[in-house]
Amino acid sequence: MAANTNMERGKGLLRALDRWIGVPLLALTGLLRSKRPKPESFQSIGICVFAAIGDALLASALIVDIKKDNPQLKITIFATLANAQVFKLIRGWDELVLVPITKPLAAIRQIKAHPVDILIDSSQWPRIGALICAWSPSKWTIGFQTQGQARHFAYNCSVAHSSKIHELQNFRALLAPLGIKTGSMPSMNESALAGAKPLDMKQPYLVFHPWASGNHFELREWPIHSWLELAKQALKAGYGVVFTGGPSDAARANALFGGLEGAHPRAIADGKLINLAGRADLLASAAYLQKAAALVSVNTGTMHLAALLEVPLVALHGPTNPDRWGPRYPGSGFKVTPIVIGPGRDKGGAYLNLGFEYPQNPLYLMNQISPQDVIEALRQFSINID
Question: What distance lies between CA 151 and its chain's CA centroid?
Fold first, then answer.
């Protein structure tokens, strides 16, 4: 499920170019292009969603608020190959445009080919999104002013990005300049899952998502031996176990799965132990999530997807700050709440804001979470594992 994300995030050369070339280009753009006034009326809004799956899911809350306030407005989503499938699960948008974000000139041409009156850039730190907005034909552009990123030069209106609130609240702040009331959660199009082939398991099953993506992804992953122990205990207790992941996770998922095959050959033969990494697309994985007794996941897009589908969830956090990036369930009438476990600030964790603020020699923290910690969390969902 993270196949293309690693292609667009975490490339060292692209990150370096974004920093060393992006800042002077943004400053020059600010000098060459005067700020445009807010239009008195508009008929269309575009939302640039150039980040990973989790960000895309959270940012899609803007669609609901825009349509509530102005149902007649046309909403165009400018997405990338890394997150486009997410919008098959999201209601409310009118047009989806794929943008080749790693090819700036082609990306600008694509934006120009689909003009909108108002263009909102939901990306928080990459300069490429800001530059694309600056050279769009839109009447008015809105984006984040993120500390140290020099992005605000590109927009007609900039909104302060805060490191002290959940990212969902930051996304909502992008609508304030338009006077649109916010507070909605993303609207999930669960009917899109009807065509996906769900697991045919008689017993309840758990979904495990061990894989992170992006910068220093390995520091946000739980030890493999802990996943093995948890899976063995779940199988012993009579639960099925399903591992998810994208094509880029397949090799490691196969190795993890191999650590269980010898001990549980009958579980594989009976379909109680399944490896979907690299074998199921986002819709199929979402269908499996929807029917799961619970998900155990590191902080990643799969975690956010499960939360929005109201799946019982144990979210494993180390350096990622759950106050900034933790799971959020929709509405106030849900039956369960997500459980976040992991070392907090008092134990050296929860320090990531935008995702790259690692110290020079970062410590591995995820081993502070034991399989027993996860088992005790699962028991709160009436999942009984000894």
Answer: 21
Query: CA gyration radius for the chain?
Result: 21
d(CA 315, CA 24): 39
CB 206 within 8 A of CB 241: yes
Q: How far is CA 70 from CA 62, 187, 295, 312, in A?
A: 12, 16, 36, 34
- Tens digits of residue pLDDT in 156-202: 999 999 999 999 999 999 999 999 999 999 999 988 988 776 667 77
List pLDDT tens digits, range 234-290. Answer: 999 999 999 999 999 999 999 998 888 777 888 877 888 999 999 999 999 999 999
What are the structural domains, with CATH classification, of the chain? Answer: 5-187 (3.40.50.2000), 192-379 (3.40.50.2000)
